[in-house]
Amino acid sequence: MKQMTLDLTKATCFVAPDAMKALEPQVMAAMNALEAGTCAGNDFLGWLHLPTGLTTELLADIKACAQTLREHCEAIVVAGIGGSYLGARAVLEALGDSFSWLKADNNPRILFAGNNIGEDYLSELIDYLHGKRFGVINISKSGTTTETAITFRLLKRLCEEERGKEMARKVIVAITDAKKGAARTTADKEGYTSFIIPDNVGGRFSVLTPVGLLPIACAGFDIDALVQGARDMEKATAVDVPFDQNLCAQYAAIRNVLYQAGKKIEILVNFQPKLHYMNEWWKQLYGESEGKDGKGIFPAAVDFSTDLHSMGQWIQDGERTIFETVISVERPEHTLAVPSDDENLDGLNFLAGKRIDEVNHMAELGTQLAHVDGGVPNIRICIERLDAYNIGALIYFFEKACGVSGLVLGVNPFNQPGVEDYKRNMFALLNKPGYEAESKAIQERLQ
Ligand code: PA5
Question: Are 243 and 120 within 8 A, CB to CB?
Fold first, then answer.
């Protein structure tokens, strides 16, 4: 299996020649603190050795549960938000057929809900599910997240009405805390199959737990290969791998070097539409981990070449506070060439016979050169192909680099105190019991 590579040459040329070397002690100190469990947020380091720690028994249980759901369901709704949603979606989109939702094959259709409060979205989902053999995977670590809980309440009732209580018990699965939260209480009371999200694994670092692995297995993808990719990356980026060869140390270092040089926005770029949700997952991972204490690179993302026709101008020519990180995929899974045309009315015969992917790679190279010329540092992550192994490796790479990068920045990368503020206001506005004082204060503020 070809190892992922990281090319920093078109980023380091924007900073002082010794800038990376100068940050090495800090980066390696962060790597050591992670490993020793002495860093900020050290009660949330369960993800660090998760790949090598996953047991054959747990993987077998996940596969068995997925098999039951696949047997009994033509659609499976994954209810979850944030870290309880984005990882699974990113992997499914990256590995799946772009048009699988139009195809009648043997795989159940995986749907996502519980990640918004859209009345139309939920109504249309319920309409779609009527008369279908569907199941639900309810994912919430806290077990109390409003978006997911409202959705689950609707889906549980629908599933029981449509499929009967006994079948509902078989096709509703909970992934939540071992002891606390409403999702755990309901799962235990109803006798649902359930999986535990370890206490020491935060939501955005949980894709390699049942949170991500069960939906991925339900869709029919190879979770062993995904985990193997992550395991190999765990070894390749271990604390004893020297700074110059350690992909996570290098990525964490260059991000901080660029940030210190005034590059406040990182744009994650892909040239494969299937990676759109990998961008979304990455935004959450880095945004929630680093954006605190008045600091942090703003994580943005684009899909090229699509967004070259919308954001391209800004990136080429706008304020020079950005850098790009490109995920480059060496080869596609299909073969398709530009056809020749006798009339050549569109003037494209100069491309006849060329693979579509060659055109895409020239767009990628041309864009990189143009953006570097325009003053945008460019980091390039290259993976061989979009398969489970490489996606598993990429996930672990981003997670570990994120932990290291956040510690170098000087924040606790494993908490998210800022996301509580909107919830407090929302609960106050909705008169949730226990929020009486906040309700009074917010109503006065609105007068
Ligand atoms: O990364 C995180 O911790 C968050 O994004 C959570 O995953 C998200 O808020 C959902 O929380 P829960 O799983 O408790 O419903």
Answer: no
Residue for token digits 């706008």? 318
Average confidence (pLDDT) over 109-120: 97
**CA–CA distance, 21 with 224 (Å, rounded to integer):** 37
298 sits in which H/E element:
strand 298-303
Q: For a substitution probing ligand 1, which of 47, 89, 145, 423 has the most ligand atoms within 8 Å of its CB?
A: 145
What global pTM score does this model have?
0.97
Ligand 1 closest atom vs CA 83: 7
Nearest CA to ligand 1 atom 2: 203
pLDDT band at 156 (very low <50, low <70, confident <90, very high): very high
Q: How far is the CA of 48 from the centre of ligand 1 (A)?
A: 18
Within 10 A of 258 (CB to CB), how many other CB atoms are there?
A: 23
**Facing residues of 193 across strands?**
173
Angle (nearest 5°) at CA 312 between 310 and 313: 95
Residue 194 tokens read as 């359930």
Pocket of ligand 1 (CB under 6 A): 81-84, 140-142, 145, 148, 202-204, 288, 416
In angstroms, the CA 247 to CA 227 distance is: 18
* Tokens of residue 313, six digits: 């101008």
Q: Is 37 helix (H, G, I), strand (E, B) or coil?
A: coil
Q: How far apart are CA 287 and CA 235, in angstroms?
A: 26
Mutate to test the pocket of ligand 1, among 47, 81, 139, 399 (most ligand atoms within 8 A of CB): 81
Q: Whose CA is nearest to atom 15 of ligand 1?
A: 140
Decide if 235 contacts 96 (C-beta within 8 A): no
Q: Report CA Rg, the chain.
A: 23
Identify whether 140 is preceded by a cis peptide bond (ω within 30 of 0): no
pLDDT, tens digit, 9 for 90 and up, residues 298-331: 999 999 999 999 999 999 999 999 999 999 999 9
Per the listing, tokens 């899909």 go with 303
Residue nearest atom 3 of ligand 1, based on CA coordinates = 203
Measured CA to CA, the distance from residue 121 to residue 151 in angstroms comes to 10
Q: Which residue has the tokens 């002082």?
A: 16
